[in-house]
Structures are given as structure tokens and as C-alpha cells.
């Protein structure tokens, strides 16, 4: 990856961009964008939103656009990021989620870099303090702002005995996203949910893509399966993701144990790390916990399983579900926003209300029917072919341009821009 990290220094020398992808028009190539992207996490924890944002930045730079990314950083990043990363002041979140950091606002060196950059578009990817400052900058300087919606943060308190806080977070999110020209949600079901909750004025789709060469049924490796302790006759049920409460690991455990009581051939494979791993292992005896995986190792783990089980209701899209589908796995997912736009019930897998009994019934049934697993898996692989990154990102750039073209700055910000130019 083209990686540049900065705290407070002149912008690093830029590499010459590659030729634009076919999704960009001649007009787009003639008018490069200057995008300032704000995220609460960009390279210190790998998750689905971060993968999407890094892919977006790489795509924009390949197509001749200028990008600066503003986000908290750590001394031990999880991977090499795309593009130029400007560190913002931050503190670790308290409690069990200390691997994530809270940005403390847009100020100091980071603000000076933004002002020198003179963006034509602000893109915020999390409704945090720093992004709120970016929206203030956009308002004051007459720059259009857009937002991508990655997570229902307002649902998190219910997993930490703080359910009373949820309605207040939802109200804040209504206010935050109302300040954006567009809000980009990753699935139609998520759009429907946001519209129903009054979040965002103009909610559009920015779906996700998948590398179908990397994530493929051809990665299935029976020798690797055996090395993890799985017998050839066992049916491997995979969980992939951050091992945190909001991913539904408690209901995964309860449903899986009920299904295994009915079908002892089921065995669990857990791919991922997180603060709840030790508790998850204790509750799921006999499961194979292989930690965080990426690239070919991750694809091999997916393809070597037999069923993908994602009980989470906090997903706005479900990158892990799409990757599993590309690897030819049938999925069992919660009937919730995100999964509903990927999994076709009874065709590529099963959707179920988020209850242990409902999940357990479907796990036991699918685990007992190899022909059904193969049929669902083939349909899932075919469905995943609809998700191409270049096409998806070219469409997003089109949305960017519509946000810029349709933007009407306030009178005060227009006067400020005029004074600055004169």
C-alpha cells in the first residue's frame, strides 16, 4: 500500500497516480477532487469499515484525486494503511474497548493541515468529536460535507447494561447526520432503517465489494482443517469478526450449543480477536480459536468451513458475510439491516429473528443436510459476483460530485471564502 503517516509536518511527496479506472469519466479525470476523510479508526484495528475506507482512499488516489485522512493513531498500527494519514489527538476508550481511541477534536497541527489542504469535500465516517469539528469547519468555510454510515453505535449500550443511553445517542445521530449533504449507507435495508429513524436528509447507497479471486471456494484446504483438529465428517460452523459483545457472541454460543445437542457433528471455528475472547473460549468448549487472520489465511479459513453464522444485529452491511458468500459458504444471519441485503432466505442461506432457538433450529437443519449446504453455497458464490469494488467506488465518486454541484453555502461562509480569495 501507498502509506504515509504524519503528525505535524509538510505533506509527504506524493506518488504519481496510476491511470484512472474505467469507472471514471473524462470529466471526472479533468476535475480532481480534494477529499478530507475523518475516521475514528483508520489503521490501528482492522475491521470492516476500516477495510472499506482504505479501499476507497486507494481508489481515489489511483484515479488522480487528492486525499488526506484524519484519524487517531497508535504506536502499533495493525497494518499498512493507504494514503496520507494525519494523526489527531486522542485517548483510548475506557473499559474493555481500550483498543479503540476517541479523537479529541480538530485542532492544532491537524487543523492547520486541513486549512492548508483546502478540501473541496469533507467526508466523515464516524459521529465523534473530531468529525463534529470537521462539520463545523465545512459549515464555516462553505465546503460540502458527506458521511458514510458504518455502525449503529446507538445500539451498543444495550450490550453493556446501559440501555437508557440508546435513545439519547439516536437523537445525537439525528442531529449529526442532518448536517451532511448526503449520508451513504451500505445496504438498502440500512437505508430503510435510517430513513425510518429520521437519520440523514439524503440517504444513498454505498455498498461494498469483495475480491472474488482471493475469497473463493478454491481456498478450501482439508489438510488445514485437519490441522485445526476437525474430523472430515464434522460440520464446521464459522464465526468471523471482532470478539466483542455487540457482535452477538453470547447468542452465538447459546444457539450453537443447542444446535450441537441436536447434531453432535457441529464444531465451531472462531476467527478473530477481541476483549471477550477468553470468555468466549470458556463458554464454547471444543471450539477452534485461531485468532486474527487476513489475506489468503483468512480466505482459507472461510472456505474450509461449512457454514457461516453471523448473529449480529449491529451490522450495517456485513463484509464478513459477503466474504463468506464469495468463498461458497451458506450463511445463517440475523434478520436485521445489512444481512437482509445480502442473504436471500432459503436461497443462499437462512435469515432468522435474533433468538437462540431460531438460530439453533436452522443450524441443526443445515448441518444435517450436505446437499442443501452445497446448493446454498453455490448460490451464495454467484450472488457475491454482483459486488465489484471498482463499480461501487465509481458510483460513490458520482455521489461526491452531486454533493459538490448541488451545494449552496450559507451567506456567511460564502463571504468568508470570498474574503480569503481576495
Task: Kindly describe this structure.
With 422 residues, the chain is of the alpha/beta class. It folds into two domains: 3-209 and 389-421, Rossmann fold, CATH 3.40.50; 217-384, 3-Layer(aba) Sandwich (Rossmann fold). It is built from 15 helices and 16 strands. It has helices at residues 26-30, 48-62, 108-117, 129-141, 166-178, 188-196, 222-227, 249-262, 277-283, 295-304, 319-326, 356-367, 370-384, 389-405, 411-421, and strands spanning 3-6, 34-38, 66-71, 83-87, 90-92, 101-103, 121-124, 145-148, 182-185, 203-205, 235-240, 266-271, 288-291, 307-310, 331-334, 349-352. The strands form three sheets. Strands 1-4-3-2-7-8-9-10 form an eight-stranded parallel β-sheet, sandwiched between helices. Helix 8 links the parallel strand 11 and strand 12 (266-271).
SSE arrangement:
Layout: E1 3-6, H1 26-30, E2 34-38, H2 48-62, E3 66-71, E4 83-87, E5 90-92, E6 101-103, H3 108-117, E7 121-124, H4 129-141, E8 145-148, H5 166-178, E9 182-185, H6 188-196, E10 203-205, H7 222-227, E11 235-240, H8 249-262, E12 266-271, H9 277-283, E13 288-291, H10 295-304, E14 307-310, H11 319-326, E15 331-334, E16 349-352, H12 356-367, H13 370-384, H14 389-405, H15 411-421
Helix pairs in contact: 2-14, 8-12, 11-13
Number of strands: 16
Mean pLDDT: 88
CATH T-level topology of the largest domain: Rossmann fold
Return the CATH architecture of the largest domain: 3-Layer(aba) Sandwich
Residue share in β-strands: 15-25%
CATH class of the largest domain: Alpha Beta
Strand order of the largest sheet: 1-4-3-2-7-8-9-10
Large-scale geometry: elongated
Radius of gyration: 22 Å
Share in helix: 25-40%
Helical stretch tally: 15
State the distance separating the first and last CA atoms.
39 Å
Number of domains: 2
Unreliable runs: 7-23
Structural class: alpha/beta
* Superfamily (CATH H level) name of the largest domain: Glycogen Phosphorylase B
* Main beta-sheet annotation: 8 strands, parallel
